[in-house]
């Protein structure tokens, strides 16, 4: 399943790329833990993210999630950060 998830993200439709306020997306896993996938998205502000998350393109962008993929209950979380330096 790890490879299917990695392929799905590598071949994603990039629907989020044109969302107002979207700055970027990185998909990664910790070294030695390919089954643990981290998504880090960057937005100009929290409201832009929340608007996209409730919208049609959010749901459409998840159509390519591999069938049978099970998220570990309690392991999925959304955190919001303030960037203060680059």
Automatic annotation (TrEMBL):
Gene3D superfamilies to which the protein is assigned, alphabetical: 3.30.70.100
Organism for this UniProt entry: Rhodoferax ferrireducens
Protein name per Swiss-Prot or TrEMBL: ABM domain-containing protein
Domain ABM, chain residue ranges per copy: 1-78
Xref: PROSITE patterns: ABM
InterPro entries hit by this protein: ABM_dom (IPR007138), Dimeric_a/b-barrel (IPR011008)
SUPFAM superfamilies, per database record: Dimeric alpha+beta barrel (SSF54909)
Superkingdom field: Bacteria
Pfam family, one: ABM
